[in-house]
Structures are given as structure tokens and as C-alpha cells.
Amino acid sequence: MSSAGQHPARVVVVGGGLAGLRTLAELRDQGYGGELVWIGAETVPPYDRPPLSKELLSRLEPLDLAEDLGHDPAALADAVHLGRSATRLRREADWVVETDAGDVPADAVIVATGSAPVRPWPAASALHDLADAERLRERLRPGRHLVVVGAGWIGAEVAGVAAAAGCRVTVLEAGSWPLWRQLGDAGRRTRAWYAEAGVELRTDVVVTSVEDGTVVLDDGSTVAGDVVLAAVGVRPRTGWLGDAVPLLPTGHVATSRGGRTAVPGVWAVGDVATRDTVHFGAVPGGHWFSALRDPALLAADLLGLPLPAVEPAPEVFSDQLGHHLEVVGRLVADDEPGAARLLRAPRDGGWSELQLVGDVLVGAVVADWPREVSMVRKLLRGESLPRLDTTRAADPTAPLRSAVLP
Question: Disulfide engineering: 268 pairs with which of 78, 127, 242, 273, CB 3.0-4.6 Å?
């Protein structure tokens, strides 16, 4: 346990991606002077993952995060072990991280092991890491037929990139519209983007198997492609924790605002964590902004420092099919008391769907409207969430700030 003036002598950060790297940097920046050990499963230094799908065919070399962020792992950590996978966490007198290359003892453990793609069909490709991107890039050529299973974030991004490069693209979605799991009804507004980008979108179709480039649907019909990509989601890499840390049904680790788990001496951050927030309840990681920002809160918590009274709202972004899409804050559920959604759609083609509880703004889905995104970010960062004059807010020609009630 950490308290002001008393810190763990040896902290082991498990996870070689953005969340792990940022945790090392924040611990040092906020004054941690003990021993830091960093373990990562991939053999390459941490790199930026969003371009793997958004710029699959145009960015051939990954962005080196250590160089881009100015974080030198060798200067931050006393020991760096890349290409070393954690296999189990166990408790003795202290914590022990078991790896495929031996045990690593720790006074405190930070779980930042990210996520893994769901792969229901071994014959289908996946896109999650650098090796996946390299394999997929080699197979996508103009004139080839790419079949994407899943119209979520990754599926939409890769479909747009491949179509723009001259591939024939078919997207198969089990739901009735794209992004229905991620955005609810707002996802319906992205349906037209597929046809505009030259992508065939088929909804309400369920895939039962994939064999040798042929996708078999539940009605017995088939779709044949040169490449099949399964883009049906990810799950947190938390299996290695065993029974040392309790998991949510989703596989995430529940944490406080500062990343503290229910088990003394263990914190979690990034994709693996569902973190408590000031205004938005428990929010799963799983996106770039959580890996970038949340380590600052974790470092403060571990060091016994006060957490800031305010923090940025959760945020997700996607470049897909020639459009930019952002989600800031949270979405309201259909059965949530007082839940309402308000569409703002200027004539220039961009739009936003405000998420309200009564007249209180709790989030927004915004497409192709940078100024609106910037304003929503500002409004959701205060010590309290803003109340809106909904009549004024419904006018897309009025700046959103002008609808804020005193």
C-alpha cells in the first residue's frame, strides 16, 4: 500500500504499449524514486496503434511512441524486458509476476497488458498489432476482394482504406446498422458513408464459419473473398491474472479514479481497466485517450498525491470512409430516466447528436464538425456538467456555448 511519504520500493509495470510507457513517465515525473521494472510481450518498442487501421496502406513504418512523446524507457526504468510475456500473478510475501522467462518480484504491480482481438474463426485475419498490419498490407492489392466481418471501429476504418486503394470491399454486420454496439441509434447515420466510399454493406447477416476465404452465413449462403478480416471486437488481456485480482464479466479490472484495484498493491490502466470517473461513472478503457491520460492519475494515486478535481471527459475517435467521428463523454441508455438525444445538423454535412439526461449534457457523438468537438470537450471538463436550453441547442446555427444555462 502507498501513502504520502511511503512508496513501494519496487514497482513492476506489465504491458509494453502506450499505457505502460506513459505510466513509467508519470511515475518519474511525479517524483517516484524507487526501482521501476517494465515488462512487455512484444519484441519491438511501443508504437502508436490507431494508424494500423486508419493508415494501414499509407503508413508503412509505425510511429515510435518513445521518440514522439520524449520518453526514454532506458532512462525511466531500471530494467526493461521486451519480448517477455506475463503468464501469472501470485501473492507471496510480496507480489510475483510470473513470465515465460522467469519470475519477477514486486512490491506493487501495474497491469497495463492491453487487449487482444476476438478471433472466432482461425482462418480469418485480425488487425491488432504491427505483425497483423504487415500481413494484411501484403495481401491487399487493387482489384482484390476484402470481406470484413463487423462494421465497428476497425471494420469501418479498414474498409474505407481498402476501397480507396482500389480493393473491392464487402462488410458483413450482424446488427441492423453500423456501430450499433458502440453508438446506438447514432450509428445509423454512418450507413450512407459505405455506399459513398464504394463499399458494399450487408446488415442483419450472421457469420457461422470462415474457411479458405469463404465466409458461410447462417442462412447457408456464402461470400467468397481474397482476404477475410474478422473485426468483431477485442477483450482485455487479463487472463494471466488468474484469481489474484477479481475481474468483471467483461474481463476488465474495476478500479478507482486513480487506477487502484480491490487488491492492495495492484493498479490497472488502459484497455484492461474499467475506471471510475468524476461525472461519467465506471468507464472501460480500450481507447487511445485512456492509455494516454489515465497514467497521470494512477501515478498520483500510487504516490499518495491528491487527484485533480476535474479531468477530461472520456473520448473515442475514428477516421472512417472519408469521415471523422468522435464520441466525447458518455451515451445515454434508452431506458435511462430522463434520457434524451438532440440532433444538431448544419448544412455543411457535419452533425452532432447531444446526449442528455433531462437538460444536462453528458456526452455527444460528432461527425465532421471539429468546432463542435472542441466545445463539447470544454463543456464536459468542468466541476459540474452543463445544463442546456434545449430549444437553443436544437438550432445548429447557434454555437453550442450559447445554449448553456447559467
Answer: 273
Mean pLDDT for 266-281 is 97
> Whose CA is closest to 265, among 111, 58, 406, 118?
111
Three-point CA angle 163, 165, 166, nearest 5°? 70
Cell of 381: 471538463
- Closest of 209, 36, 14 to residue 121, by C-alpha: 209
Q: pLDDT by residue (tens digit) across 16-70?
A: 999 999 999 999 999 999 999 999 999 988 999 999 999 998 888 888 898 889 9
- C-alpha neighbours within 13 Å on the C-beta side of residue 97: 29
**Average of per-residue pLDDT across 373-387:** 96
C-alpha cell at 298: 494512477
What CA dihedral angle connects 196, 198, 204 and 207, to 10 degrees?
-150
Total length of the chain: 406
Nearest alpha-carbon partner for 83 in 97, 101, 65: 101
Q: What is the pLDDT of residues 293-329, one digit of tens each?
A: 999 999 999 999 999 999 999 999 999 999 999 999 9
How far apart (Å, rounded) are the C-alpha atoms in residues 205 and 258? 41
3-state secondary structure of 137: helix
Rounded average pLDDT over 234-238: 97
From the number of C-beta atoms within 10 Å of its C-beta (0-12, 13-18, 19+), residue 122 rates as: exposed
Please state whether the predicted TM-score (pTM) of the whole model is above 0.85.
Answer: yes
Amino acid identity at 103: D
Q: How far apart are CA 293 and CA 184, in angstroms?
A: 26
SS3 208: strand
